[in-house]
Design a protein that fits this description.
The protein is mainly alpha-helical and 181 residues long. Helix content is 62%, strand content 0%.
Length: 181
């Protein structure tokens, strides 16, 4: 790739290492296809499996809570790929279209605990974690703990990596495109 070229390609299974080909096979069995984001990570011999290990780690956060963090972070970072992917995953986890749009906007008025999580996540991402004591207190008063806070920060880091990869490359979004806010 030359420095003036702005097109980033997603590799095919044949273009990645044998280890990543085996991971593609696992992804196809688990989710039915290899999302372009995962395929792009496979350009690097270790990044895909490292990233999947991070995503698969045990967490104190429930699936819905993870999607709140993913949606808020992806919205703030302007990643259309992750907004679209997590809109689809959010629906699979029981959120409706209206709730997803509200979450992407940094709140969840339909659930006080998720609202506190959305606001906390937005504050952390927007302020590089230099947030007010009041913002932390609201998170803890909603029933979250320091252990949960660690999981939120790890999940934000996970999502920032993907947001940045797609924002840098702009490869094709292979999920239904999420509406703009």
């Amino acid at each position: 790739m030359t420095t003036t070229e702005n097109t980033f390609s997603v590799p095919t299974k044949a273009e990645v290492s044998e280890k990543n080909q085996a991971t593609f096979d696992q992804l196809e069995k688990q989710i039915g296809f290899v999302p372009n984001l995962y395929a792009y990570y496979a350009k690097n011999n270790t990044a895909l499996n490292d990233y999947l290990a991070l995503q698969g780690r045990k967490s104190t956060l429930r699936a819905k809570e993870k999607e709140v963090v993913n949606l808020v972070t992806s919205q703030i970072n302007g990643c259309r790929y992750c907004q679209s992917a997590h809109t689809a995953i959010g629906k699979m986890n029981g959120f409706n279209d209206e709730q997803i749009l509200e979450i992407r906007g940094g709140k969840a008025s339909f659930d006080s605990k998720l609202d506190a999580l959305a606001k906390f996540t937005a504050a952390v991402v927007n302020n590089k974690a230099k947030i007010s004591n009041e913002a932390k207190e609201a998170f803890f008063n909603a029933g979250y703990s320091e252990v949960n806070m660690i999981d939120v920060v790890i999940l934000i880091g996970d999502k920032i990596m993907s947001n940045y990869i797609h924002n840098l490359t702009g490869f094709e979004i292979d999920f239904p495109i999420a509406p703009e806010l």
